[in-house]
């Protein structure tokens, strides 16, 4: 049977119609077409993504170096939901909703820092670093108020080889089984002994999927990054795609000229590839010889996306190079690459409302994009 896929301009489509167009990506023989343009602009689709993806997915948000000591905290928004992660006095990481239980005042602004507790600036209620209530001013005369049961709603938090993940579903199952293959294959990179050289947080004016699908292919390096990323790809822009589970995809690209390995016990094969894995919806970890980059793409709204990331290096490397010198060198590169992606992807977003826009045919150089579409289709169209 021949399958017919509409590629031309379409009138405004309902969320149900858009999901019907996305469903074929979950099949063994998906259409080699880009997503319907309205998948990036539909408020109804975005609301479904919030419910079916971001309310129950593991989101990579930081490296443990950012939350090393008791009192260290990180605050961010995940698809409109405020999230705080702290290193408690007990040494553990805690995830919570940083919104006062009294009158909905945010306890902390987005960012990171160090605190003894979270004190509400509205009525001075105070919460411990694990989300439990420490003090509620002038509440003793309210007989119906029980401070022992008043605490900030908790989220699931896990560390994986120094990378910190949060899930809005406090009862979410662990993601470690999905990363079993990647975990084994990255043994020689010694992630547990890596230090974070730099990290960044940026806001891009595009839908989160515009940014994510860009990261699933090397094809754009010839256009966006001709003098930065493209020279690293001496082995070409092809990639090998392995879909390990509903959540994890491994992408392997040939480096051509092997990377140097002075500290890590990398094999010749490991020095000759750029190895990366993606954790749906927007997390990525990639190797460049002895350097590791992590990046996380998190929606703020329908057309605003936060891009978080960092660069890791072997701890032993700091015995030979000053950390500040290394940080400046890394930042000079990553800032340029990020700016190249941001400029291009924001331009894409500006065209997505065009009534003349149609679905594009994908190149054979973009198998990773179809891998992302498959996971998106599975997440959005599963029953229930």
From TrEMBL:
Pfam families membership: Rieske, Ring_hydroxyl_A
Keyword RNA-binding tagged: no
Keyword Metal-binding set for record: yes
This protein's UniProt keywords: 2Fe-2S, Dioxygenase, Iron, Iron-sulfur, Metal-binding, Oxidoreductase
Cofactor: Fe cation
Rieske domain residues: 58-166
Domain of life: Bacteria
GO molecular function ontology, one term from the record: oxidoreductase activity, acting on paired donors, with incorporation or reduction of molecular oxygen
Name this protein carries in UniProt: Phenylpropionate dioxygenase-like ring-hydroxylating dioxygenase large terminal subunit
Organism: Nocardia pseudobrasiliensis
